[in-house]
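Entry:
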Amino acid sequence: MAYRHRYLEGDPLDLPVGKVVCIGRNYLDHIRELGNIVPETPILFMKPATALIGLDEPIRLPTGRGECHHEVELAVLVGRTLRAADTTTARSAVAGYGVALDLTLRDLQNELKKKGHPWEIAKAFDGSCPLSPFVEPATLADPQATDLTLWVNGEPRQQGNTRLMMIGIFELMAHISTHFTLRPGDVVLTGTPAGVGPLRSGDRLILGLADHEFAARVA
């Protein structure tokens, strides 16, 4: 089934499926758990449209490439073109909020880092961005103070809140737009809190965004 952007009610949105722009190291607790250095400027990377799948589809882990880690993140759906935007314009361009997994081939990523190589093959593989349906912006009380959770097989793995981001949602969108034009249908991932870890075949997941919960499973 081809991925389509949807609201919770289930109807497809009249938006194309675009690129996914992500930020690395946007929560201090996650930076510390991986022993990384706090960046001086935002670390941006992208996933192609082929990375997107709905959470109702089985998550298929690449084989023979080491551990694949979960990273739960607030996802922002872009509804209007943003180019060199300010934060107010960025906020007005949001078409919806969702929750996503930035799947990461951690062993491969670590190898690439040691060699000074880009991360794309560890981050941007097909199906590397499972994504929930979106909630309309007006229904999320405060996107910058929203709980994010991930449970795996009934055990809590990640629990964070978007107020702990080092770079806020709209500041991040504005910053991205000075480097890459954001178009309707693009998605921005805003970083992950601590608690990342490996997924295994057969795992059952519950992703939480505020009071919304979404089930997923690993094939």
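Residues 20-217 form a domain with the Fumarylacetoacetate hydrolase; domain 2 fold (CATH 3.90.850.10).
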